[in-house]
């Protein structure tokens, strides 16, 4: 029975292949999360755990999507050298960042920008009617004076109306810290969308709205691979106008999908695609 002998051989070969396959799978090299070669050098940055939403790189030629993610800075940003504001700022927030140091209030030029680039001054906002609006907030960085002071670099600042900044926007900032004080860890990314005008001779762009995406993790040191379909994601898009004092951040909740459409970014790009699809279509209801 030559035919069945060949069949037996084929089955045996298949079994050996499966066993070898299982052994190879179990012994596969483990690539630590965060060190995967998704992007060039400064990518092992805790503030970019959930991914880089734009094509930002630290190449000087990429002046309108310029990545600043050195580990001495307690957040990561993409800076826009045409708009003179960050495109986005991204940061981890857990209890280790919170302490009791007072607000440094030392708004100042970012002298680390590439040679020849305009360095926005605090005084550029004088008389504009717009607040110097933190993206990574001062109150999220209170563990020591140096860390707090880093939030006052003008590359972390966009023009926000007082009603946006001090009421609606501040409300979600406070809620974020409340969540952290219950043990949560947040991965936050915030920026401006559109343009409703400019400030001063240097034409600092005034965003038409300010948006934010918050991934709420159950415990500190979470990874993108810990995000599940049940992970809470809060996304807002707040008009950068006056007259919204009686509103709260809850009134401006949107889906991450809507923000991705609006900005052209891909948020949470380090999260598996199938989970992104599930969590990015929802609007927070809590
Ligand atoms: Mn603010
Ligand atoms: Mn996405």
Q: Which key terms come to mind for this protein?
A:
single chain; 286 residues; alpha+beta; Extracellular Endonuclease, Chain A; six-stranded antiparallel beta sheet; two-stranded antiparallel sheet; 5 helices; 10 strands; 23% helix; 20% strand; elongated; binds manganese (II) ion
Short description:
The protein is of the alpha+beta class and 286 residues long. 23% of the residues lie in helices and 20% in strands.
Describe the protein.
By secondary structure, the chain is α+β, with helices and mostly antiparallel strands. It has one domain: Extracellular Endonuclease, Chain A (3-Layer(aba) Sandwich). The protein is about 25% helix and about 20% strand. It is built from 5 helices and 10 strands, in the order αββββαβαβββββαα. Strands 1-2-3-6-9-10 form a 6-stranded antiparallel β-sheet, with helices on both faces. β2 and β3 form a beta hairpin. The protein is elongated, with a radius of gyration of 23 Å. About 5% of the residues have low confidence. The site of one manganese (II) ion has 7 residues, from α5.
């Amino acid at each position: 029975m030559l035919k069945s002998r060949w069949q037996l051989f084929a089955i045996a070969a298949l079994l050996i292949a499966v066993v070898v396959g299982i052994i190879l799978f179990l012994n596969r090299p483990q690539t630590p999360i965060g060190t995967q070669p998704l992007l060039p050098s400064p990518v092992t940055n805790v503030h970019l755990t959930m991914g880089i939403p734009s094509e930002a790189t630290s190449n000087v030629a990429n002046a309108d999507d310029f990545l600043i993610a050195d580990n001495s800075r307690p957040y990561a940003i993409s800076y826009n050298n045409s708009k003179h504001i960050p495109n986005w700022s991204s940061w981890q927030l857990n209890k280790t960042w919170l302490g009791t140091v007072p607000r440094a209030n030392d708004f100042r030029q970012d002298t680390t920008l590439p040679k020849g680039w305009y360095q926005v001054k605090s005084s550029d906002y004088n008389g504009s009617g717009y607040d110097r609006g933190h993206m990574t907030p001062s109150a999220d960085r209170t563990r020591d004076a140096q860390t707090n002071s880093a939030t006052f670099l003008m590359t972390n600042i966009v023009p926000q109306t007082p009603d946006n900044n001090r009421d609606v926007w501040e409300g979600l900032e406070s809620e974020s810290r409340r969540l952290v004080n219950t043990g949560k860890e947040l991965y936050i990314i915030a920026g401006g969308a559109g343009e409703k005008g400019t400030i001063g001779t240097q034409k600092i762009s005034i965003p038409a709205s300010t948006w934010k995406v918050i991934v709420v993790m159950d415990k500190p040191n979470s990874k993108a691979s810990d995000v599940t379909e049940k992970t809470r994601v809060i996304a807002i898009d707040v008009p950068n106008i006056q007259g919204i004092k009686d509103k709260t951040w809850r009134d401006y909740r949107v889906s991450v999908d809507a923000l991705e459409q609006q900005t052209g970014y891909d948020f949470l790009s380090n999260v598996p695609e199938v989970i992104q699809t599930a969590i990015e279509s929802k609007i927070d209801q809590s």
